[in-house]
Amino acid sequence: MSAIRQSGRINRNTTLIDLGMEGIAGVTAVYLIEGQKTCLIDGGTRAEARGLVKALKRLDAFPPDMVIITHAHFDHAQGIPTLRKEAAKQGKRIEVLASREAVPLLADPAYNEVFGTGPYEKIGDVTPVKEGDTVDLGGVTLRVYQVPGHCRDHIAVLDEVNGCIFVGDTLGYKTGDTASMPAFMPPSWDPDAFHSSIDKLKGIEYEGLCMAHFGYIYGSEAKGILDEAVSTYETWWQLFERNADKLDDVDALLETIIDELDPEFEEFQIVSAKLRVMYGLMTGVSRLMGKKPQPVGEFLMRSVLEWLVTGYKTYQKIQ
Prior knowledge:
The protein is α+β, with helices and mostly antiparallel strands and about 325 residues long.
């Protein structure tokens, strides 16, 4: 697959920044766009916010003039309070833009409680944007598209100069050439909206596609990944339906997914010293018990799987 999945410049105006979320590289990215003004696509997590500030300072880009939030989930927005506090120390202000639907969700710390990774902070003073709005960075023009499904407040942002579209979590997870996970997260998954958003993306002219999870996809794969996202969703949803009795046992469900889908995860790099020690201890215990150590990809997938189960259950209750 034609993809860039490491920190660095992906075109003349855009830099991928790996947050190292959960202490692992290749999990969550934000994107810095530089024209006469600077714009960050998504604000990352609270836990990784100070690392993001340092990364932006190394790029001589802190504070950015603005942050556009693709949606209100914690891993895309909860870093913003820290970014704003650090900017205020320099007497500067970061403008935050998000969809009209996201504004009240960002203002409600309880919105993300379903993920269990708090505490969460209120994010106010947000400029609402809608389909068709443009943001002029000076040399780079960004156009907003509404792409609900993963959640009702989701937007995508097209860089009309470089032909690059930032899709957040619209498609789900794509952490390697062969590793895909679906988009049905809580608390407001909508399959009909998901399909409509995929159709909308197919009608947009773009050269490359930036995913929060994870990386810049270009070439023919940048279009083919849209159908892959639909196929991944349908495959996983059907597996959940067949294994409804295992949804309260994530370990059993994970084993079934590995047996039936055989996901081939890339070799993830642990970047957190604390996680490296913890994972080393887990690996040592497994070997002492005569068990095969769990790959980092499976370790990571377990936490994501818990959220997918919640998303699936939440949707079933709505019906």
